[in-house]
What does this fold into?
Amino acid sequence: MNKTQKGAWLNVTGVLLVLAIVSYLTIQIGIQHRPPEGLVLYIWIPAFIIIIGIGIYFIRRKQSPAEPDSDERDNQIKQKAWIAAFISVWPLFLAASVAPQFFIGLDGSIPVWSLPIVTVGLFYIVLLVYSIAVLIQYGRGGNNG
Amino acid sequence: MGSDRLSNQIRRLRLDNDRMTQQDLADKVGVTRQTIIAIEAGKYAPSLPLAFRIAHTFGVPIEQVFQYDNTD
It folds into this structure.
């Protein structure tokens, strides 16, 4: 695997991990109004740091000393992946804007703490789309991809 | 519109040059091994500068490395 592929895999792992943690905490604290207890309270931060640290170590390892960080094919793949990620922003943004109306109603209100979760969550989902687009292009190995 | 096909002799030229590995060729032309794999498999068309660097590495004209078949 080259650096771009490894970076995409690290992104996928990290984003899914963050989404899982945020979802768990949102349900636990925001909806059930119960703070996390015991091991759950303390394990997720060091676990996240360890996983990201291991991922960064593997990204920095090269197949050979002369391997470039990215070449022309990598740049093409990343460019197409960014286009896919940009296109995905609009339906995601629309869904995030419209969905509360169905769950809460037109006259309902949402707590302020949910806004950064939605915003950052959108960012992470777009990053996930980008990374998956990179991995699909490498795996498919299609024309110019 | 005719179908365009770009084929190459990179694998044969590598083996004829002291059984050069894909990694060795990638290091010489400044790309990753995955790019060389994709070029050999016909999954990726290299840019002109890269194509010329590959030909220069083997010491042959570019036409001996890449062949363009435009069949109508």
Summary: The helical segments of chain B are 10-16, 22-29, 33-40, 48-58, 62-65. The interface with chain A takes residues 23, 26-27, 30-35, 38, 41, 43-47, 50 of chain B (CB under 8 Å). The beta strands of chain B are 3-8, 66-71. The longest strand of chain B covers residues 3-8.
